[in-house]
Amino acid sequence: MTKHLERELELLRGELIRQFGVVEQMIQLAVRSLVERRTDLADRVIESDSRVDEADIRIEEECLKLLALHQPVATDMRWLICVVKVNGELERMADLACNIAERAKSLDLYPLFPVPDELTEMVVATNKMVKISLDAFVERDAKKATEAIKLDTLIDTMNRVVIDQLHTIMRTDPDLIEPGVHCFSASRHLERIADLAENISEDVIYLVKGEIVRHKHGLIYDATTAND
Predict the structure, then answer these.
(1) CA–CA dist 127, 62 (Å, integer)
(2) What is the annotated signal peptide range for this record (predicted)?
(3) Contact partners, residue 50, CB within 8 Å, separation at least 6
(4) Residue 114 region, left (φ>0) first, then alpha (ψ -120 to 50), else beta?
(5) pLDDT band, very low/low/confident/very high, at 217 (cuts 50, 70, 90)
């Protein structure tokens, strides 16, 4: 690898890590705005989206430029391909954080609506999954990536529990149907953020091992494989 390419890759890595930080904070603020009924936090999330969109385009253009100019091979090429994919997942996560923030603002009109306790547990698990998947990418750690993928099953289960609870609330009191739908959507957005964190973790395993693990999660749950 030439020194020029090495320097450009390092600059790109720094830009991507900054994007990680912004998106991670947006998700945390969005779920706090939902759980704590803080519309001020929801507004901050929505205001941050334009920064993420601008960085998304900048990072993608830089990746394409480096691929065209330097025609990297092996690990460098794989890393750049992963950056393009991860960058896209981050932009979608930011959009979902904005969707949650919008739902939080709508729910604020119903201060007495009982948000299921299980949603708070789901928020904690989703935040943890996102953090582990981003750490895994920065550290190129396939074991952490596998750990994040395992959390997705737990979050899917929590989502089903929350939806069941919301169905019960809405059947019991028709006046709560509208806030129930807002809460329902927020839960689905959280579950989707977890899916995107799972995609990033799959990209990490491809980056480290050169192995495509989509649709093969049963195999990567084997700790021996993860530690290769």
Answers:
(1) 29
(2) none
(3) none
(4) beta
(5) low
pLDDT at 224: 42
Give the list of residues 6+ apart from residue 180 with CB closer than 8 angstroms, or none.
Answer: 113, 166, 169, 170
**CB of 61 within 8 A of CB of 8?**
no
Q: Which domain holds residue 219?
A: 3-226
Please provide the DSSP assignment of 71-113 as one string.
---HHHHHHHHHHHHHHHHHHHHHHHHHHHHHHHHHHTT-TT-
User: CATH code at 37?
Assistant: 1.20.58.220
User: Per mean pLDDT, which range of 106-115, 161-170, 180-189 is the poorest?
Assistant: 106-115
Residues 146 and 201 sit within 8 Å (Cβ to Cβ): yes
Amino acid at 145: A
Would you say the C-alpha torsion 73, 89, 26, 40 has a positive or negative sign?
A: positive
Is a pLDDT exceeding 60 seen at residue 223? Answer: no
| Average pLDDT value for the chain | 90
Look at the pTM and tell me if it is higher than 0.70: yes
Q: What is the per-residue pLDDT for 1?
A: 60
What pLDDT, on the 0 to 100 scale, is given for residue 216? 66
Structure confidence by residue, pLDDT tens digits, 125-134 = 999 999 999 9
146 vs 224: CA distance, rounded Å? 11
Looking at the structure of the chain, the number of domains it has is 1
Neighbours of 121 (CB within 10 A): 15
**Is the Cβ–Cβ distance between 215 and 147 less than 8 Å?**
no
Residue showing tokens 């939902």: 34
